[in-house]
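Batch job 17 of 40 flagged for manual review because the log was empty.
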Amino acid sequence: MIGEKKLCVQCKKEMEVVDVKPSNGNEVQVLSCGHLIETPQSAHEAIADLPSAYETISAASKQINSLNDILLFVDKSAMSQQEKEKTKEILSIIDKEKDSKTLPQIKQILNPLKDWLPVASPWVNLFVTLFLKQ
């Protein structure tokens, strides 16, 4: 948690968590701006019970046979709508260019979307794995 970036609602800026303290069964995060974020412990327990993106993708991979299957799982994922759209755009570009372009050429085409690659990377990895199986 310490070092993690969080949105400070008072400053309306992303700040770094500099300390974490327990308070009445809750967790209080001290931000670098000095403001506090209090999170009920029950929220942490609920989040801990959610499967990670990699666990979800791993389970889903057993049912995936095409790019369309991957796109359906992206649509059902917990990502924001914008993250879903950018991920699908990246996957579509890779699919379109995979037979006619080299990897460096595809990377160049994806350059405008490079900020979205970390979000899309689990799905890109799944697509590459699927492609290599064919």
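Reviewer: the log was empty due to a logging misconfiguration, but the result itself is present. Strands lie at 5-8, 13-23, 26-31, 36-40. Unflagging and moving on to job 18.
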